[in-house]
Design brief:
By secondary structure, the protein is an alpha/beta fold. The chain has a single domain, classed as Aconitase, domain 4 (Alpha-Beta Barrel). It is built from eight helices and seven strands, in the order βαααβαβαβαβββαα. A seven-stranded mixed sheet has the order 4-3-2-1-5-6-7. Helix 7 packs across helix 8. The protein is globular.
Length: 165
């Protein structure tokens, strides 16, 4: 369980404002990707985000192109999760693959404002904010394991190593 500051944005936040396309072929190091997270949407994000903060979005978060750098840049900037009303399907999968927790919980999104504090209890599927608790569906065991490993690549390495023992 971690508490963090809410960074709240609206509907249809697309991958080009999450990680600008102009860096797609020139920035490959995840730590450097963090420098450009949400650059075109909120220039203060990378300057002020702290480990454990939470990005909150409206409907269709992560729409646009299938840009794997988008969730990686948010994760590397320090956000522990993205909570949104809904996600673009490809972004949702890319976030899991990158080891970034993504949660669909309309009630929590509607309850918070930019700068509020939010706590995520992933093990129990609860978000706490504004003195209230918001339940969200439990993660599938495989998804939880991918997140615990830090993403799909590390999860796959772990599974291959287990097979080779």
């Amino acid at each position: 369980m971690k508490k963090g500051k809410v960074w709240k944005y609206g509907d249809d936040v697309n991958t080009d404002v999450i990680f600008p396309g102009k860096y797609t072929y020139t920035v490959s190091d995840p730590k450097e990707m963090a420098k450009y997270a949400l650059e075109d949407l909120d220039p203060n994000f990378v300057k002020e985000v702290k480990p454990g903060d939470v990005v909150v979005g409206g409907e269709n978060f992560g729409c646009g192109s299938s840009r794997e750098q988008a969730p990686i840049s948010i994760r590397e900037a320090g956000a522990q999760a993205i909570v949104a009303k809904s996600f673009a399907r490809i972004f949702f999968r890319n976030a899991i693959n990158a080891g970034l927790l993504v949660i669909t919980c309309k009630e929590a999104v509607d309850a918070v404002a930019m700068g509020d504090e939010m706590e995520i209890d992933r093990d129990n599927g609860i978000i706490r904010a504004k003195g209230k608790e918001f339940k969200y569906p439990a993660l599938a065991p495989q998804v939880a394991e991918i997140l615990d490993c830090g993403g799909l690549t590390e999860y796959t390495k772990k599974k291959i190593a287990a097979l080779n023992q």
